[in-house]
Amino acid sequence: MYKNKRASAIIAGAGASVRMGGGISKQLLKIGDNTVIEHTVQRFEQCEYIDEIIIVCPPDQESVFQEMFPNHTVTQGGKTRQESVYNGVCATSNECSLIVIHDGARPLVTVNEICSVIEDAEKYGSSTLAVPVKDTIKAVENGIVIDTPPRERLFAVQTPQVFYKEQYIQAYKTALQNKHDFTDDCQLIESIGEKVHITIGNYENIKITTPEDITIARALLHLY
Question: Does position 74 have pLDDT exceeding 80, yes or no?
Answer without folding.
Answer: yes
